[in-house]
Specification:
Elements (H helix, E strand, L loop, with lengths): L2 H10 L9 H10 L4 H21 L5 H24 L7 E7 L6 H12 L3 E9 L1 H11 L3 E5 L6 H13 L7 E5 L5 H6 L4 E2 L3 H13 L1
Helix pairs in contact: 1-2, 1-3, 2-4, 3-4, 4-5, 5-9, 6-7
The structure holds cobalamin.
Length: 214
Amino acid sequence: MSTLEELATAIIKGNIGVPAKSDELVQRALDEGIPVKEILEDGMIGGMGVIGERFKKCEVYVPEVLIAARAMKAAMAVLKPLLAESDIEPVGTVVIGTVKGDLHDIGKNLVAMMLEGAGFNVVDVGIDVAPEKFIEEAKKAGAHVVGMSALLTTTMPAMKTTIEAIKASDIGGKIKTIIGGAPVTQAYANEISADGFAPDAASAVDKVKELIAA
Ligand code: B12
């Protein structure tokens, strides 16, 4: 197995039961002279992509995704300083948070990790996020997309309020919005004029790519 194949496998297995861990494999790949871009795309994003697909098909569940994301994070820590020096542009910037009044963040974190795994620059603004905060952070980051998560039927209207505030602000029209969370549906996204909806973290990556390309 090549070092990049080993790296992808270490991420898929969440560094469990593998001969070398993801951060060690990134270092080995660098020592072998493999370009940063290849390590990121073929090794790391490739591995995370496999997990995303398996999650979508319900072949793996939240814990497996979390441990894969942890292995991804360890690998990223080695690569990040070099990424800043290289000319690799992030695929896009996404500001993501859980809307005002809502403290659930497991799903939102998964979406953030998957997006990072797919090469996006992700600014996670946390939980209980007011519309003004989403706007301020999106401006600061130069975001292409704002992602909102809600797990309570009582906080879903905060998505509507946030989207209205974004549209009324000076970044309205320039930025796309995507919503998600267990009670959220495509019908609700249509109703509140969100640009996108995705039912799970892997589909969220596809949808955000679609929104940026549109
Ligand atoms: C864990 C949990 C909690 C934890 C949260 C811990 C944390 N750090 O997140 C705690 C204990 C704090 C909690 C508190 C409460 N909870 Co709660 N909680 C849950 C539980 C069991 C799991 C949620 C979860 O993490 N699911 C796993 C993740 C992976 O799934 P997910 O969030 O849906 O995310 C996926 C997709 O939806 C999507 N997605 C998510 N976000 C986004 C964002 C974007 C942009 C996109 C594209 C996609 C996307 O991708 C994710 C990954 O695939 C649910 C029950 C359930 N089955 O949903 C109840 C549930 C959501 N909670 C509920 C309630 C009522 C509460 C409380 C009000 C309870 C109380 N009386 O205090 C409080 C509210 C606190 C608050 N203000 O937010 C109800 C909501 C009912 C309703 N219809 O509104 C539920 C459904 C339980 C129930 N059956 O009654 N809760």
